[in-house]
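User: I'm preparing a small set of examples for a lab meeting where we compare how different chains pack in three dimensions. I only have the primary sequence for this one, and I'd like the structure in token form so I can line it up with the others. Please keep the answer compact; I'll paste it straight into my notes.
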Amino acid sequence: MLVKCNKYINLYDGTEMNASPWFVKGHEYTVLAFFTRSHHGPLILLHSDIANEPRLVSMIGFEVISQEIPQTWIPQSRTVFGNNLFCSLLPKPWEYDRFERDLFSEDSKAVSLYNQEAKIIFEESGKEFIPFKKNYPKMKPGELTHEKAIQLGAKYLLDRDYPIDVGSGEAKFPGEEDDRDSEGCHVLVSFTSLYFDAPEDEHPFDPGVYIVFVHLYSGKVNMIGPM
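Assistant: Understood. Below is the structure token output for the 227-residue chain.
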């Protein structure tokens, strides 16, 4: 399955962005997995030709130019965070519940499985695959504090033009209330949107609160979090 990038769309508020650090307008990309979530709509996993890393993006802004499904894809469905239905088409080795979280945290097993299956899909589409390499060094125990986690989360969101109130940042470590990580690997960091009190019809796609997950031992930030 191939898509072409026509627009840069903000994953969380649906607005068009002027630039992207991962994709180039007019370039074709091989789709590695397809997801639907009740609160996001259709999402696709692509391999950035700029950063050589996986990125989960909204299908809005991408044009499908080939509907040929990779032979390794299988269907999967599960419920996450309460009643949010999560459906996907993806390679079977990626089927375990924590794969997405582990991949974006640069877990060695997930990165190895990602490169293995992505290479197969790229070869099917006749394109060259440049493997994803881990970028984040290990952090020392205790090095990640509440303040540091908030700083990392704010930088991640501001770099992507998310409208957050930096002063509203909160961090919850594993074991603290509503940390959403039963296995204790991530810090949940949340920020109130600058549009939180604005009329809903002015910013219909704004979630009100932005949440990111900071990995305890690498400092890696992602918006997918533990599954």
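A couple of notes for your slides: The first strand starts at residue 2 and ends at 5. Helices lie at 99-104, 108-124, 146-159.

User: Perfect, thanks.
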